[in-house]
Amino acid sequence: MLFIYIRHGEPIYEPDDLTELGRLQAEAVAKRLAEIGVDKIYSSTSNRAIQTAVPTAKLLGKEITLLDFANESHPWENLTIKTPFGKKTWLYQAQETIDLFYTKEIADLGFDWYLHPKIYKASFPEEMKRIQTESNAFFASLGYQALGNGKYRVIRDNDDHVALFAHQGFGFAFLSLLLNIPYPYFCTRFEIGHAEITLIEFKNVAGFCYPKVRSLSDGSHLR
Question: Per the confidence metrics, is the pTM higher than 0.85?
Fold first, then answer.
């Protein structure tokens, strides 16, 4: 299976929609995915993700299946902090947190990064667990049973190309768990740009697979 992750195009957050540039980006994504080939299309329930998926669905004659667990409103509620000025922001956008994420203390905590006393908040482990649980169910429906540590048992092999249109804030947590990379590493060292495409291969090796990145946040179709 080839899993394709696409962040929505340039958005208007209020109301939830795309800019004119975002709509052009969505059209470019559709043309690129037509070259790759897509068998199944999934989208977050947010309008900006759906609107990004629509051109691909139309071009390829596919239905869009909505996944509320991928809606960014959930991590926005549970994986954010307030700055000293009272502004709500993502952990990876607050300079103090970014600096902390590069420390040995966080590295030593690994997947328990949220236990660090400077950032601990009960909603952090709860949200990561929610995403992990829902992700496991999603991939199980596609034939891959999560065994932990980034390893999957192939319970129903397939050659499908599966696309999920979603977000950056959700994507950093979702992909870090999928690839077994601690969240502080992933969100501070990689990027997920508007309408960029990530390809992850689920290769069956003797009944098991370890998802492997073929390309991360490719934006060549936008240029």
Answer: yes
Query: 151-154 and 208-209: which strand pairing?
Result: antiparallel
Q: pLDDT 10s digit of each residue in the chain, 223 long?
A: 999 999 999 999 989 999 999 999 999 999 999 999 999 999 999 999 999 999 999 999 999 999 999 999 999 999 999 887 788 999 999 999 999 999 999 999 999 999 999 999 999 999 999 999 999 999 999 999 999 999 999 999 899 999 999 999 999 999 999 999 999 999 999 999 999 999 999 999 999 999 999 999 999 999 8
**Could you give the C-alpha distances from 207 to 134, 145, 162, 172, 203, in angstroms and in order?**
23, 11, 20, 28, 9
Question: DSSP secondary-structure letter at 205?
Answer: B
